[in-house]
Specification:
Shape: elongated
Number of strands: 25
Length: 876
């Protein structure tokens, strides 16, 4: 018989099992009837003849079993029988089944959710052709200090490089958008060169991409938009082609539409991608561009680094404003550049959920072991009736696999709901929008369920003892359940406490950091402050005089509004961790040695009334005045941290510096020192320099007003006052108090997530010790009754049970503490003013865990102390 025919026979026997059984009964009945008739013909009575016929065949059931074995379906039939038996057993114990499924389902659901995030954010390939050949090029002068490229850099790379098949650049900016059906709005655009699109390798779905001819001076402005933007603004991608958008007053034609669902290229998200026009090269800086290249086939990143190092050496002597010989053009794998330091946070997240899953598995294993102990008589009877140990083990494994598969279904449902919540709460993670519940997650859930089922089954299988001991259990002569089983339960409880330690310490450290962040003084009072961002279209505000006139008129109009106590202007209002305007400088009286990098600090521009509006105190020198105009010598105000770091032990006022490497420009004089402000956020340094807004012609800035009451009506009045000057201006209003609160949102989310995991760990550990001690009291009920009958006091029994529970917790805590100290440095980067080995946090965790163990042990201990000796001795 061929393999296919044999398989067909087996399938038919399984599918038509009832028919096969009926045919077999009919055939056996035929043989019995024929033998019976033959014996009757010989003179036997009918009843005796049938009995003799049955005996002659040697047992009908034996033949049936042989036929079933010959079909080759016995393993599947046995499995079906095991499944039916397991389902009946779980239905008789709904509390046990529900607890195990829920506990393990939570662990599997959290694991599936976090795996989806880890895969999409850290592990998955970038969604571009041959993504491993894509690199981002940055300036770098130390392992941790990198910055963007300048026009001189990207042009030099384009002309001198030997390793890229495609090379392009991109710059992000805020602009005023008009030319659509809606009102003007402020959006973030990503201006890109033609080489950027070709390097990334994503073609447009409609129209054409940006070409090299579009980058030529005087060429018409063109842009590519996303399909979502085209649908939202024009109804369809086809309708968007050829339409004109106005960005900061400059018109541009939509020539291409990206594929549906594509709004990210090279780690940058934007709805509008205009052609990039490079600024004329006047010096090495400013550094404002992202460069992306596609390596030629067979070129390694090491070869690219060597080629870019050569270019760095060649262009260094060309620009006097760039003196840092240690700064090198450096390639980074694009995926690494996109994910950056966020990978550590995600892996910490994954480590926390892995501990929760292990805790869930250990907890369910403990429950299963306890249930197996309660079923010891049943299992013993099976062995006495001839069942082999492997057959009993298979029955236990089947039952536990059913439990874990049910938990997997619950876990996947939790993951489906949890992913939406995770995406909404972790918007700062790169690539978080790509997270989805795909086949990998489902496969992980099923695999984790099988793995968990096998692990959970190991405990009762290992506890199965020899046939003699099981026989003793069946007859009721055994009192103890066996030292091996007791040791296994104790080991599980120890493991739960050991696993809970890293979770609780990590969450405690993050909570401690968050509390400290909340206590950080931002350097000003945010209550009642409102900012309104403005981008003046350069096509309508052609020069600095027009910009200055708008500012002066707007300040006057805003100050005249009832309820406005003060108003000022700044290039940015704190806190803003994404502020990217930094500038290098060199102190005149102690310049940086030739060949070393000049220091660089966040550089803001502020009006004379800015500091008083925010309530920032001037500690030395003076503030800006109206006479600090563009015609006067340039001036700057520095923060206290700036003065301490760069001018220690001396007065900063009156010192001069060269700004931006422009050694032919007039020297900038420090005229004042202001108190530190957390411009970049509560956890980042306060070093800052403030240039005079009256000396800057920037067209992008923010008005900041202090209101007696920041109501919607008063904010609307600010907006209307600016629209009365220019109705087409897009405005963005922000309550500064909300910005301060949002600056704490990210650390608060990480602390909350890890605290939730830690709470699960603590609960599971407490549940484990409670279950163990409750079961121990139930199993030793007779022994405890004898102790009480012989004169033991109830408090002694309580102390005995509690002491045993605390002993397990102490052993687990010692192991967990050692593991925690080994892993402590992994979380250092996420902490603020807290050591990874902070004694207070570690001591608090120890008290919390031992306290939970004390409570969990005390409840069954009180029950043990109330046992009535005569009932326990006589009723067992």
């Amino acid at each position: 018989m061929s393999i296919a025919s044999d398989l067909l026979v087996r399938v038919r026997a399984l599918v038509y099992r009832r028919r096969e059984e009926d045919e077999m009964d009919e055939e056996l009945r035929f043989h019995v009837d024929r033998e019976t008739q033959e014996r009757i013909r010989r003179g036997q009575d009918p009843e005796g003849a049938r009995r003799e016929a049955m005996l002659a065949l040697g047992g009908v059931e034996r033949y049936k079993e042989q036929v079933r074995d010959a079909r080759g379906t016995r393993p599947l039939e046995d499995l079906a029988a095991d499944i039916r038996y397991a389902l009946r057993g779980l239905r008789r114990n709904p509390g046990f089944a529900a607890t195990a499924i829920l506990v393990l389902g939570l662990g599997l659901g959290a694991t599936a959710t976090v795996y989806s995030i880890v895969h999409s954010v850290v592990l998955a390939d970038l969604p571009y052709p041959e993504p491993d050949r894509l690199v981002r090029v940055v300036e770098k002068n130390s392992p941790t200090t990198t910055w963007a490229l300048s026009t001189a850099d990207v042009v030099s790379i384009r002309e001198r490089q030997r390793v890229f098949s495609e090379w392009g650049m991109l710059a992000r900016s805020n602009v005023a958008l008009s030319g659509t059906n809606g009102p003007p709005e402020r959006i973030v655009i990503a201006s890109a060169s033609s080489g950027y699109f070709s390097a990334i390798g994503i073609p447009v779905a409609k129209g054409r991409p940006i070409s090299a001819t579009d980058e030529a001076p005087g060429a018409p402005g063109v842009m590519v938009v996303t399909d979502a933007f085209a649908q939202r603004k024009f109804g369809s991608a086809d309708s968007a082609l050829g339409r004109t958008l106005t960005l900061d007053g400059f018109p541009g034609t939509i020539v291409g539409v990206l594929p549906p669902g594509r709004d990210e290229l090279g780690g940058v998200r934007s709805d509008v991608w205009p052609v990039l026009r490079l600024r004329p090269i006047q010096r090495r800086g400013p550094f404002w561009l992202r460069g992306v290249g596609r390596l030629k086939p067979g070129v390694s990143i090491e070869a690219a680094a060597a080629d870019l190092s050569r270019i760095s050496s060649e262009i260094l002597p060309l620009w006097t404003d760039m003196r840092d010989s240690s700064a090198k053009l450096t390639p980074q794998p694009l995926r690494e550049a996109i994910v950056g330091g966020r990978a550590k946070q995600v892996w910490l997240f994954a480590g926390g959920v892995a501990l929760v899953l292990l805790l869930a598995i250990v907890n369910v294993a403990t429950l299963v072991l306890v249930r197996a102990g309660a079923r010891e008589n049943e299992l013993a009877v099976r062995v006495m009736l001839g069942a082999k140990r492997a057959r009993v083990a298979r029955l236990l494994v089947t039952e536990n696999l059913i439990l874990t598969f049910a938990a997997a279904v619950v876990g996947l449902a939790i993951a489906y709901a949890g992913l939406g919540l995770a995406v909404s709460q972790l918007q700062n993670l790169p690539r978080i929008q790509d997270v989805k519940l795909d086949w990998r997650v489902i496969a992980l859930g099923v695999s984790a369920a099988v793995f968990s089922g096998i692990l959970v089954s190991l405990s009762p299988i290992a506890a199965l003892r020899g046939r003699a001991n099981l026989a003793a259990s069946a007859t009721g002569s055994r009192v103890d359940t066996g030292r091996r089983t007791s040791r296994m339960r104790a080991a599980f409880v120890v493991a739960e406490f050991a696993l809970a330690w890293p979770l609780l310490v990590a969450s405690g450290l993050l909570l401690n950091s968050f509390v400290r962040l909340q206590r950080v003084d931002p350097g000003f009072d945010p209550q009642g402050l409102v900012s309104i961002g403005v981008d003046l279209p350069t096509i309508r505000y052609l020069g600095v005089p027009e910009i200055f006139r708008f500012r002066a008129l707007a300040l006057q109009r805003l100050a005249d509004i009832p309820g406005v106590e003060s108003v000022g202007i700044a290039s940015d209002v704190p806190p803003d961790p994404n502020y990217g305007n930094t500038d290098n400088f060199n102190l005149v009286h102690k310049p940086v040695p030739q060949g070393q990098s000049e220091p660089s600090v966040p550089w803001y521009y502020a009006s004379p009334t800015y500091f008083s509006t925010l309530g920032i105190r001037i500690v030395e020198g003076r503030g800006f005045v109206d006479t600090d105009t563009a015609d006067a010598f340039p001036v700057v105000i520095v923060s206290e941290s700036f003065a301490r770091q760069y001018l220690p032990g001396e007065s900063a006022v009156g010192r001069q510096l060269v700004q931006g490497g422009c050694y032919g420009c007039p020297k900038t004089t420090i005229i004042g020192v202001v108190q530190d402000v957390k411009n970049l956020g509560p956890s980042l340094p306060s070093v800052a320099a403030y240039g005079a807004m009256t000396q800057s012609g920037t067209s992008s800035f923010e008005f900041v007003a202090r209101l007696s009451s920041a109501t919607p009506a008063s904010i609307a009045a600010l907006r209307e006052a600016l629209r009365a000057i220019d109705p087409e201006l897009p405005l963005v209003e922000t309550r500064i108090a909300d910005k301060v609160e949002n600056s704490l949102a990210d650390p608060m989310r990480w602390a909350a997530v890890l605290t939730a995991f830690a709470a699960c760990g603590l609960g599971l550990a407490a549940l484990g010790v409670f279950g163990l001690m409750a079961y121990a009291v139930r199993q030793r009920r007779r022994e405890i009754g004898v102790r009480l009958a012989l004169g033991a006091q109830p408090r002694e029994v309580t102390r005995l049970v509690v002491g045993r529970g605390l002993r397990y917790a102490a052993i687990g805590s010692a192991i967990g503490l050692a593991v925690t100290l080994l892993l402590a440095n992994r979380i250092r980067a996420m902490l603020f003013e807290v050591s990874p080995t902070d004694f207070t946090t570690i001591a608090g965790v120890g008290v919390l865990l031992l306290g939970s163990a004390l409570v969990a042990s005390w409840i069954p201990a009180r029950r043990a102390a109330r046992i009535r000796p005569m009932e326990a001795i006589g009723g067992d």
